[in-house]
Amino acid sequence: MADVINDILKRNQLSVTDSRKKILEFFHHADGALAHADIEKMSGESFDRVTIYRTLQTFVEKGIIHTIPTADNSVKYALCKDECAAGHHHDDHIHFLCDDCGTTYCLDTHVPAVQLPQGFVVKRTDVVVSGKCGKCSN
Amino acid sequence: MADVINDILKRNQLSVTDSRKKILEFFHHADGALAHADIEKMSGESFDRVTIYRTLQTFVEKGIIHTIPTADNSVKYALCKDECAAGHHHDDHIHFLCDDCGTTYCLDTHVPAVQLPQGFVVKRTDVVVSGKCGKCSN
DNA sequence: GTAACTGCAAAATATTTGCATCCTT
DNA sequence: AAGGATGCAAATATTTTGCAGTTAC
């Protein structure tokens, strides 16, 4: 596991630091997406709030993680698929937000094609479904 | 027009006040969705920032407007269709964000059905497409 | 050794809350 | 008149920026 994390950072020309390794581990262990606040709690104050902001921003720029649109104002992040290169996101998968437990899942179901009016050029499609997840629907 | 605005407020048991009328007009005239900051600018300081927060929240609760999920941290709002009653949103339409001009469109194209894993219950589906709108793609 | 990264302090923004006053009904 | 809505002040929360010290390579 440590190797995987290390590789991701090196591949993206980022220095391997404690905070980056930790934050990447959080994402790998997480069931779903994480918000800034989640990471802050998980870290147990072991590194600065500002470092989290900067690390997340760096990871987004490098295409390691991507943001997930949510209907409330919260910003969540999740790991990108391997095909993601810097600036070339292919994250047209579906996100599911559970209203009960709050978990955000990245589903592998592919995104259905969308009909748009003349002249509209599509660059990215996000599908955000909310409701109850498998664990909470019983 | 004034009648329409008035009706919306009365139908939802809200007192008809200047700020509410103005904000509803903004939405009716707007090409797309509006953020809190947009409304603040459009209002030209004629009413308080806090009033805007509270008015938007009230309108969302009553089902007059709805939030639009965006990948950045911004929160945008748009008018709901007539069928929307308080707490019963039927806004499964598609939102398009133009990367160039920043306008958010609510498209009437209906949302394609989504395949989900066993046990997942869908309550709401948001599709957010980004790219270039008709005006900016030339 | 040098460039990159982090922590701390502080600034800038955004959002929420309490309360007195004013307006709608 | 009464309840709800607004404005103002202030408390909170969130995000960004600058800079000095530290760490990775």
Molecular structure report:
The structure is a homodimer of 138-residue chains. Chain A has four helices and six strands, in the order H-H-E-H-H-E-E-E-E-E. With 138 residues, chain A is of the alpha+beta class. The first copy, chain A, has a single domain (2-131), classed as Arc Repressor Mutant, subunit A (Orthogonal Bundle), CATH 1.10.10. In chain A, the strands form two sheets. In chain A, strands 1-3-2 form a three-stranded antiparallel sheet. In chain A, a hairpin with a 7-residue loop joins strand 2 and strand 3 (76-79). Chain A starts with a helix and ends in a 6-residue tail after the last strand. The model of chain A is unreliable at 83-87 (pLDDT under 50). Chains A and B meet through strand 2 and strand 6 of A and strand 6 of B. Strand 6 (121-132) of chain A pairs antiparallel with strand 6 of chain B, so a sheet runs across the interface. Chain B binds a DNA duplex (25 and 25 nucleotides) through residues 14-20, 36-37, 47-51, 53-55, 58, 73.
Fill in the keyword field for this structure.
homodimer, alpha+beta, Arc Repressor Mutant, subunit A, 3-stranded antiparallel beta sheet, 32% helix, DNA-binding
**Most extensive interface:** A-B, 40 and 39 residues
The arrangement of helices and strands of chain A along the chain is: HHEHHEEEEE
- Level of helix content of chain A? 25-40%
Question: In percent terms, what proportion of residues of chain A is strand?
Answer: 25-35%
Supply the number of structural domains of chain A. Answer: 1
Q: What is the CATH C level class of chain A, in words?
A: Mainly Alpha
Overall 3D form of chain A: globular
* CATH-level-2 architecture of chain A: Orthogonal Bundle
Summing up helix and strand content along with how strands pair, one would put the structural category of chain A as alpha+beta
Radius of gyration of chain A: 16 Å
Low-confidence stretches of chain A: 83-87
CATH superfamily of chain A: Winged helix-like DNA-binding domain superfamily/Winged helix DNA-binding domain
- Major β-sheet annotation of chain A: 3 strands, antiparallel
